[in-house]
Amino acid sequence: MDKLGISGKDSSWWVFTLPAFFETRNLYDEWFLFSLLPVFVSVGFLTWVFTPGGFAWKHGRNQKGPASITGPRGLPFFGSLFSLSHGLAHRTLASMSSTLGATQLMAFSLGSTPVVVSSDPQTAREILTSPHFADRPLKHSAKMLMFGRAIGFAPNGTYWRLLRRIASSHLFAPKRILAHETSRQLDCTAMLRSITEEQSAHGSVLLRKHLQAASLNNITGSVFGKRYDVGQDDNQELQELREMVKEGFELLGSFNWSDYLPWLSFFYDPFRINQRCAALVPRVRRFVHEIIEDHRLRGCDKLSDNADFVDVLLSLDGEEKLQEDDMVAILWEMIFRGTDTTALLTEWVMAELVLNREVQAKLQEELDLIVGDKGVTDADVVNLPYLQSVLKETLRIHPPGPLLSWARLSTSDVQLSNGMLIPASTMAMVNMWAITHDPEIWKDPLVFIPERFMEKNGGENVDVRGNDLRIAPFGAGRRVCPGKNLGLVMVSLWVAKLVQHFEWVVDPDNPVDLSEVLKLSCEMKNPLSVVAIPRNLVSCPSPF
Ligand code: HEM
C-alpha cells in the first residue's frame, strides 16, 4: 500500500466503520468513548502484566534476539522510577538483577525510557566497547548547562572525535601531566599545611574540604592556568567559582523526573532545575569568557608543555577552530569532572586506611623503604606497588561512579554474544559496583584486601584502566574516561604524601562511617573526620 501511495491518506476510516458494529452513530459519541475506557485500561494493564521490563519494553522490544531480556515491570507508566529515584540506585539494581537472575542483562523502564543494566564483565565489555553504544543520553540539566557541546555528552561524530583528539594529545598527554607536577606538588604542600593547622586548632581534621580545595586548584591550574590561595575565603573570584561548581554539581547530580516523564516538566519541577540552570549559565559564560579574554590579550605564540587548556583551545586553527560557546562548555566540563572524583576517591582511601591500620602501617613501611626522607614524586609511584594496590582496592570497593556516572545510548540494534538483542534508542548502564562486589568474581568482596592485587603475595596485578571489565571504574571503549591517568596520578601523590607525613587515627568523637550517598559521584554520607598525628618528622621531610 505504501508503494501505491495510498497508505495513511485516511487512517481514521475505522473510526467511522467501527460504530456500525456497536450500533452507535459516531465513535466520537461521549458515551461510546466512556464505555471504551475500561477496554483501554484493561489492554494497558495486560500489556504491563505481560511485559517484563515494564511499559517502555512493550511490543516485544526485549524479545528481538534469540534470548529475551528479562526485568522488573515496575509500575504502569512510571516503571521503576520510584525505586531508583532515591537511595542507592547501584545497590537497588544489583539486588533486583540478582533476585531475577538477570545479572548478564536486565531490562527496566524509567517512565517511557527503556533501560538495560549489565552486572556482568562480559556483557559490560560488549556494551562499552560497541561502536553502537558510543552516544550518551543527555539529561535535561546537562543540556541546559551547555554540556551537549562538551566531550562527555557530544554525540559520537566528527566534533566529538576532534575533542577527544585534542584531549589526548594536549590536556591528558603524558608530557603535559608530567609538566604539571610542580603545581601538583604546590597544591599538595598547601593541603598538608592547612591540615596541620586544623589539627592543631581543633584536635581533628575534616579531610574533604582540604581535598576539594586542592583538587579545584589543581584542575583550575591545568585548565585555566589560574591558581587561587585557597586559604583566602575573602577572594571573590574563588568564592564565585566555588558557588558555581557547587550549584552545577547539585543540578547535574539531582534526579530529575522530567528526564523520564517529559510531560511532567510543564507543572512539576520541585528542584526548580529549569530556573536554576537558566540562572547559572550566564554566570558561567561570563566567568569563563573573562578567562578566555585574558588569555587572548596575553597571547601565546608557541605552546609549551605546561600550557593550560585555554591556550590549547585558542591555538586551534582552520577546521579545528572552536566557537567561544564550545570552548566554555569544554573548559567548564573539565572543572566538573576533575574536581569531585579525585577528592572523593582520596577520602575513601583515607577512610579505609584509618579503619585498616595494618594496611596503613604497611604502606608507610613501603614509603619509608623506597622513598625514604625525600618528598614523594610522580616518578616514585611506579616503584610503590603496595600504594597502587591500595588505590585499586579502594576503586574496587568504592568505585566513584558505581553506575559509571554517565549512561550510554544505542544508536542501532546491538546483538550480544549471549543471544540478547538490545534495540536502538535504549539507554544502557553498567553496574560496576555489582561487578566489583560479586563473590563469583572476587573472593571476600566486602573485605578491604589490597594484597589481592599484589603479585608477590599471590595476587593478580589487574589493570583498572578499562582493559579488564572485572574492575573498570573509568569505563571502557571509545568513551573511556580521558582523565584516568591524571586522576590516578593526583590521587596516588596525595595519598602517598598524606601517609608519609601523618599517622591517621580514628577521631573518637566521629568514628568512621562508610555509609554512601549517590550524587554525581558516590561519596561518604558523613564526611571523614580524623586525627592526623605528624609522623616522626626527623626522618620525614618537611612539607613546607
Ligand atoms: C578518580 C577519578 C575519575 C574517575 C573514577 C572517573 C570516571 C569516569 C567514568 C566512569 C566515565 C565514563 C566512562 C564510560 O562511559 O565508559 C568518565 C568519563 C569522563 N571523564 Fe572521568 N573519571 C575520573 C577523573 C577524571 C578527570 C580528572 C577528568 C578531567 C579533568 C575526567 C574527565 C572525563 C571526561 C571528559 C569524560 C567523558 C568522556 C567521553 O564521554 O568521551 N575524569 N570518567
From TrEMBL:
Signal peptide, first to last residue: none
InterPro entries per record: Cyt_P450, Cyt_P450_CS, Cyt_P450_E_grp-I, Cyt_P450_sf, Cytochrome_P450_78A
Xref: Gene3D superfamilies: Cytochrome P450
GO molecular function: heme binding; iron ion binding; monooxygenase activity; oxidoreductase activity, acting on paired donors, with incorporation or reduction of molecular oxygen
Keyword terms, alphabetized: Heme, Iron, Membrane, Metal-binding, Monooxygenase, Oxidoreductase, Transmembrane, Transmembrane helix
Binding site residues for heme: 481
Keyword presence, Metal-binding: yes
Segments passing through the bilayer: 31-51
Superkingdom in the source lineage: Eukaryota
Cofactor requirement: heme
Record-linked CDD domains: CYP78
Family of this protein: Belongs to the cytochrome P450 family.
Name of the protein: Cytochrome P450 78A7
Naturally occurring in which organism (per UniProt): Protea cynaroides
